[in-house]
Design brief:
heterodimer; A: about 240 residues; alpha/beta; 5-stranded parallel sheet; 4-stranded antiparallel sheet; 12 strands; about 35% helix; B: about 475 residues; alpha+beta; 5-stranded antiparallel sheet; 5-stranded mixed sheet; about 15% strand; rod-shaped
């Protein structure tokens, strides 16, 4: 789909547990186009079996499944000690549905209908869990350095003063350096909101951040990914 | 006859009847115990009095005998036996022959009980043949004389009998009255119940407009009827809300669906192909996204109005939430040329649905920016969270064109857009969502003149404070940590 994105995320093995064939095949095809591989399971029991034996990087689990529902699949996996990250897909979108899903052991929750770019961004964010966040004290992208202990941000050695919210925004972007971060993800993790703000409020926040960290420097690090969101990376423009 | 019996039986089986019967019985038992006690006491006093008199007389006569011998005592007894006296006397020799007195012999009852006792006699000068009751005691005058001293106690006996009869009649009458009263109360309650049952039946049969009639006396049954009527109002409201939603969905989603389809078709028809298709598809996706947003908002509002989201309550600082949402919108507001001013009270700890209230505030700020864009650049949009009365008022005020008073109630309805706003982007559901969130939290939305401009006030009742406990410092952060 988007060639500039290839090579920035590792290839992931994804298991899609979804009973709607059309949706499942669409996901499989799209994920393949983004450089990942995807296996399919059409019901909860088959999905549980496959997830148990295979080494997958991410599981995509639909809540409503025949034979065994999605949340039960996740609960069983967690009870067996399986810690593979899970993205839950569901038509049920209220906050308590989300809470239920996360409590069952899911790591992220996406309501249908969703934009594929949103799903891809979240799957990639889940799949790349190398060093636990708590242990990383410093994020570096190019010559931009963010120190988590002192909350100090500098680029090219030059200190940049950020508002607390701007700092948090940059921190989240750098946590997912090289990956696409959607507006919804930002709203959820930087502001803890699960609603749709209607206007482009996030965009303005990001452009202010960009003004501070990119403007007076020769190489832009914060990029807009059209139709998806934002990403921060050091590489060819 | 059986119909009457059946009705009475029904009335008698009610709780009301049982309760009043129990009350009457308890009262009667208490009254019986008290009057029984009084009766016994009165009787004792009178009896003691008579016996006292008899003993006193005995002493006197003994003294007479001791002093003057048989002649003296015979004279004394004769004197005492005159018709006007109340006493009864019998003086005899050891054989039983009468010496003096107004009794002619030892009464048969006293022959068997030498200490004295009660007996019947017929007065000498009485007109009727009725026997009277009397009591007498023997007086010890030695072996030569036999003396009995007594008193007529027929009046006493009459008194006692009258009292007994009066008590029995009284109790009988009270019991009957109690029974009848209980039955009457039960009948009355049954009638009221019947009115309620009849109304419910016709409602179940489909007539949602019926209401239970009130007596207007403000009693508990009226209170119950009023509550049931309120419940019926709510149900009727929900039913019509449901109809409205499906009407809205039918009408207002069909147009965007149509537009969506048209845009796809238009792209297909475009002779340029290739790039035009791409643009067309992107526009189609945009329209599909708008449609999804509208549908989700409609669904959310419908569920809110049905009161379905009560369970998900968090405890948080409302002032902090308002500040956070305002901060989210601050850059966008500034880009549009407005200054966002925030004023919040301290310590507004509430138990409410954080996401919904956040969304409501966001909608209001979004509206303020959207609808006053272009007017009064640089003017302030004020966002406040302050106490009002016993509750809390969240308000967003702008300096835009405002909403004229007659239109204010209309705009809270779904999809209503005032004429001058018809061309604005958005779903037209923002304010109705705010109204639904207010309602969920037992509050309301007020639209006011900001002089100039519009001020929307989201009023939450004191119930949001209800269970709130003071926050432990450091235990809660407002920025999400993963």
């Amino acid at each position: 789909m988007d060639e500039s994105r290839q090579g920035w995320t590792e290839t992931m093995r994804v298991l899609v547990i979804e009973d709607d064939r059309e949706t499942a095949q669409f996901l499989q095809k799209s994920l393949k186009e983004n450089g990942h591989t995807a296996d399919l399971a059409g019901d909860g029991e088959a999905g549980l079996a496959l997830a148990g034996e295979g080494a997958y990087d991410v599981l995509i689990v639909d809540r409503m499944l025949p034979r065994l529902d999605g949340l039960s699949v996740i609960k069983t996996l967690r009870a067996d000690g399986n810690r593979t990250p899970v993205l839950i897909l569901s038509a049920l979108g209220e906050v308590d549905d989300r809470v239920k899903g996360l409590r069952a052991g899911g790591d992220d929750y996406l309501t249908k209908p969703y934009a594929y770019s949103e799903l891809l961004a979240r799957v990639e964010a889940l799949g790349r869990r190398t060093v636990p966040e708590e242990q990383q004290t410093r994020y570096t992208v190019g010559d931009l350095v963010l120190d988590r202990l002192s909350h100090r941000v500098a680029r090219g050695g030059e200190h940049i003063l950020l508002q607390p919210r701007e700092y948090r925004l940059l921190e989240y972007l750098m946590q997912h350096a090289g990956q696409v971060v959607t507006r919804t993800m930002l709203l959820e993790h930087v502001w803890d909101y699960h609603f749709d703000p209607q206007t482009n409020v996030i965009d303005v926040h990001v452009s202010r951040l960009r003004a501070k960290i990119d403007k007076s420097f020769d190489k832009p690090l914060l990029h807009t990914v059209r139709g998806a969101g934002y990403t921060i990376r050091d590489g060819p423009v | 006859m059986t119909a009457l019996f059946e009705r009475l039986a029904t009335a008698a089986s009610t709780t009301a009847f049982r309760l009043s019967a129990a009350a009457v019985i308890a009262f009667l038992l208490a009254a019986a115990a008290i009057s029984g006690f009084l009766f016994w006491q009165t009787n004792s006093v009178l009896t003691d009095q008579v016996l006292g008199q008899l003993r006193a007389e005995s002493q006197l006569l003994k003294a007479e005998n001791a002093g003057g011998g048989p002649v003296a005592i015979a004279a004394a007894v004769t004197a005492l036996s005159r018709p006007e006296g109340a006493g009864l006397y019998f003086l005899a020799d050891p054989n039983g022959s009468k010496i003096a007195g107004n009794l002619n012999r030892v009464p048969p009852e006293l022959e068997v009980s030498p200490q004295g006792g009660v007996f019947r006699y017929k007065p000498e000068r009485s007109v009727s043949a009725a026997e009277r009751l009397a009591v007498a005691i023997p007086v010890d005058l030695g072996p030569a004389l036999k003396l009995l001293v007594g008193r007529d106690i027929e009046d006493q006996r009459n008194f006692a009998d009258t009292m007994k009869r009066a008590f029995l009649l009284g109790f009988g009458a009270l019991s009957l009255l109690g029974l009848l009263g209980g039955l009457a109360v039960s009948r009355w309650i049954l009638n009221r119940m019947e009115a309620i049952t009849a109304t419910s039946r016709s409602i179940v049969a489909g007539d949602l407009t019926r209401r239970i009639p009130l007596q207007g006396n403000g009693g508990e049954l009226d209170g119950l009827a009023q509550n049931l009527n309120d419940m019926l109002d709510r149900i009727e409201g929900l039913m019509s809300g449901l109809r409205e939603v499906s009407d809205n969905i039918a009408h207002d989603l069909k147009t965007p669906l149509n537009r969506l389809r048209n845009s796809a078709e238009e792209a297909l028809r475009d002779p340029r192909g290739g790039e035009a298709y791409r643009d067309g598809l992107e526009r189609t996706i945009e329209k599909a996204d708008d449609l999804i947003k509208t549908f989700n908002a409609l669904l959310l509002i419908a569920r809110l109005e049905a009161g379905a989201l009560e369970e998900n309550l968090d405890q948080f600082d409302l002032g902090k939430l308002v500040e956070d949402v305002a901060e989210l919108y601050m850059p966008a507001a500034e880009e549009a040329g407005f200054a966002l001013a925030v004023e919040t009270a301290d310590g507004l700890q509430v138990r409410a649905n954080r996401q919904l209230i956040g969304q409501a505030i966001a909608n209001l700020i979004d509206n303020a920016i959207k609808y006053s864009r272009g007017t009064n650049a640089g003017s302030a949009i004020t966002v406040k969270a302050l106490r009002e009365g016993s509750g809390v008022a969240i308000s967003v005020g702008d300096r835009g064109p405002g909403i004229p008073a007659p239109d204010r109630s209309r705009v809270l309805k779904r999809f209503v857009r005032l004429e001058k706003s018809r061309t604005q982007p958005g779903t037209g559901l923002g304010l109705s969502l705010v109204a639904a969130v207010a309602r969920l939290h037992h509050g309301e939305v007020r639209l006011e003149d900001n002089e100039p401009g519009l001020r929307v006030v989201l009023l939450l009742s004191s119930r949001v404070f209800a269970d709130a406990v003071p926050e432990v410092p450091g235990a809660q952060t407002s920025i999400a940590a993963k």
